[in-house]
Amino acid sequence: MSLIKQIWLTIVVLLLLVFGSSLFIGVSSSRAYIEQEVRIKNADNANALALTMSQMPKDPVTLELLVAAQFDTGHYRQVELRDPQGEIIEQRRAGEAIEDVPAWFVDLVRFEIPPGQAVVQDGWRQFGILTLESQHSFAYRSLWRSSLELVGWFALAAALSLLLAWWIVRTIRRPLRNVVDHALHIGERRFTTIPAPRTRELREVVEAMNQLSSTVRDMLGEESEKLDLLRRRLQHDGVTGVLKREAFLAQLQIHLESQDARASGTLALVRLARLAEVNERLGHNETDALLHALASGLDQFGKVRGGGVVGRLNGSDFALLLPGAHDLESLQHELGKRLAALKEQSRVSLGLPAALVDYAQGDQRSVLLASLDGALSAAEARGDQSLVIAEGPQRRSLFTNHGEWRHALQEAMAKGIYLAHYPVLDSEGELLHFESPSRLRLNSEWQPAGIFMPWISRLELDSRLDLAVIDAAVRDITQRGKPLGINLSAASIQDARFVTELQTRLKARPDVAARLWLELPESLAIHDLASFRSLCHALQPLGCRIGLEHVGAEFTRIADLQDLGLGYLKFDRTLVQGVDRVAEQQTILRGMATLCHSLGILAIGEGVETRGEARTLFELGLDGATGPGIRQLKYPEE
Length: 638
Prior knowledge:
This is EAL domain-containing protein. InterPro entries: Cyclic-di-GMP_PDE-like, EAL_dom, EAL_sf, GGDEF_dom, HAMP_dom, LapD_MoxY_N, LapD_MoxY_peri_C, Nucleotide_cyclase. Keywords: Membrane, Transmembrane, Transmembrane helix. The structure is a single chain. By secondary structure, the protein is of the alpha/beta class. Helices cover 55% and strands 16% of the residues. β3 and β4 form a beta hairpin. α4 runs parallel beside α5, α5 runs antiparallel to α20 and α7 packs across α8. The longest helix is centred in the first third of the chain and has 53 residues. The two termini are 47 Å apart.
């Protein structure tokens, strides 16, 4: 039995005990008082009538008149006069009429009142004995009415008491429920904190649990910072703080192969010309500070544009990756202003030539870099501040303008979406879920998401596409019965109407919701925490698993999300590639997996290319892996 039920049972039992005791004491007291009063009345009236008879003539007519007058005016059951030998001289009797009082009540409180008796004198001689007994019906009626009034007042008092008790229990129940939820969160390894209630006992419990949560959260934060420091030493340049060549090129390859809006954008290459001469004139420290300022400026420019990635390819060349950015002329102008500002701040004359090229899914990384390198050499030959736009690979555009793209995308979404199926497997080769990027039929061919997602974002069709993907996922799960993972865009979860519509659809299919894995980019959860939190609160009660993909650069901030009950994290491909050969990567991933498990989160590796990488990931404690390298493992057929 719950504590609240025990409290209510205690309150009701106490009220019943109080009522029963009050009613018993009240009725008993009233009964005793009435008996006493009637006994006195009987005795007084008998003495008064006997005294009158003693002073009057003792003829039968006078005695009859006195007895009749007393009987008719005094509500008596019996008035009787007997001679000393016990013979009746005069007598009056009346029945006991108690019509308006229940018989059970009369039997329960039956009065035991002796009749009043007095001696009638005739001079110095005893004439007779007078017995007088009052009628009890009025006493029963009086006691019945007082009992009913007592019950009525008690019912009113009980109602008020129960109302007060309900309010008190409610004030106790709310913080108690919060304490229970808090304990469940800790049991689920969601280390949240709640305000301390006013109740002393509950406050002590809450303060202890809050302290536990804070301690664990601080510990996890410290461990994640240590892991991030190790990751930065492995992937980032020590002087400028941006990605090293290998890490940047890996990021570029990931973007070229991605299935979302990152699949197209702009790639820029900036060179600090005559680096050896600058180093000689400024000195090593100032040159390092200049390189750091250049890298920081590019990084800031990338963040302003959204999702930018900066890398140092060699001593003097810096690359900037701007996913989703397609206006090369605007980018050329803005980048030129930033480089000019940096040049003005320097004590020496700087050469900062740059080249830009657009990229799209399927482009060859080497071709893009070769095109940029050639354009940069041409820009350097033109002057210190020259920015040129390189000629990118020749591509066949599906449609020529925005109107054609909009019509084609809307028509394709109306006809239906195809979901691909890439398995995510655990260490035993069993299926965790299928990754299911969307495909649209454009120009009579099924096109991958990397082709149309940039246009979906430009035309603001994200919410419509995501709802269509949800409908396709519902049908797929219904037919196959397998768990499915789909991606949601940032624009969709920032749309309250989309979240409400998604919640409505999944509420109608709880069996599907339990097999649905929803993925969002790590950067979205970190930089738009309010929208991500709203999504988690809306969908997690339905049984959905919500996770983050491409986790890496912002892993230190994952501890800030531990109260949301994330289901899984997918570690970025840059951390996974070559993990079977690099000890530092193994240390990083082992620590990240341990932290995930401390929070009750599954750890999954992305982009596994070889079976050796997959084996190493599972040895490090990861729960799952996805990519070409797991194809030889066992998994359920579609």
